[in-house]
Write a structure and sequence with these properties.
Blueprint lengths: L3 H16 L7 H14 L2 H17 L9 H10 L2 H9 L15 H10 E2 L4 E3 L5 E3 L2 H8 L14 H11 L10 E2 H9 L5 H16 L6 E2 L18
Antiparallel strand pairs: 1-2, 2-3, 4-5
Helix pairs in contact: 1-2, 1-3, 9-10
Length: 234
């Protein structure tokens, strides 16, 4: 983390919860207490957190241009009719019309501030807590929600399958499947297994569960081994 206040806030909240384990606090209350304490602190007290933030910033690699939902929208515009039909058969038809609207920065920060990742809830006071469920996400994205758990345990056969689809004979995958590799597939305008596998992995790593790099990691490979099973995944 490169923000000294964020470093302090997490340490403060963790400290309160450790000192008062029997007390249940909503995240907003702890955040307000942390903000109040930060404002009251002298510069000398803030110095260690500022130093930690600067050290983290110095170690951070150069920011790369990442693929986002905007890129997914751009890809969708280039798909042929047959490719769009193939995507619809996968159960991803709603993603063909995905649009990215700009939201106020303050609104986004407010949501982040009130979101508790451990409980997957938005907390707006003790009596206004909203759980974000898988069904909510599926409904918002227009995706069908099946009942079969998505496989994530990547085995050697899964990697070999992806290598056989996207790499030249004899080549080995050293990391995940890069977006650049998938872009080459889309340019060929085909709509078979290779295209469908690439589209699902592209949608996953760029939009549905974006990664820190422009690539689909091995953890995503098991989910595309059986393309016919994708509409049934939860």
């Amino acid at each position: 983390m490169t923000n000294p206040y964020i470093i302090f806030k997490e340490e403060f909240i963790q400290g309160v919860r450790e000192l008062e384990p029997s007390t249940t606090y909503i995240l907003k209350t702890l955040t307000q207490r942390a903000a109040k304490r930060w404002k009251e602190m002298f510069e000398a007290e803030k110095a260690p957190y500022i130093l930690s933030a600067n050290e983290a910033k110095a170690k951070r690699p150069p920011k790369e241009k990442r693929k986002t939902a905007v890129k997914l929208g751009e890809l969708n515009k280039k798909l042929t009719i047959n490719q769009r039909k193939a995507v619809e058969r996968l159960g991803f038809g709603s993603l063909l019309n995905v649009q990215c609207n700009m939201l106020p920065r303050d609104f986004i920060w407010k949501l982040v501030e009130h979101f508790n990742p451990k409980t997957r809830t938005l907390e707006f006071g003790r009596l206004r807590t909203y759980e974000i469920t898988t069904a909510d996400v599926a409904r918002a994205l227009g995706l069908k929600l099946g009942g079969v758990p998505i496989p994530t345990n990547c085995e050697d056969d899964h990697v070999k399958h992806i290598e056989s689809l996207f790499l030249e004979k004899g080549e080995k995958m050293t990391r995940g499947l890069t977006v650049k590799m998938m872009d080459h597939v889309f340019e060929k305008k085909t709509s078979g297994t290779k295209f469908k596998t690439a589209y699902v992995l592209y949608a996953l790593c760029c939009f549905l569960c974006p990664t820190t790099k422009d690539e689909a990691g091995p953890k995503l490979f098991p989910g595309v081994m059986d393309l016919d099973a994708i509409p049934h995944y939860a």
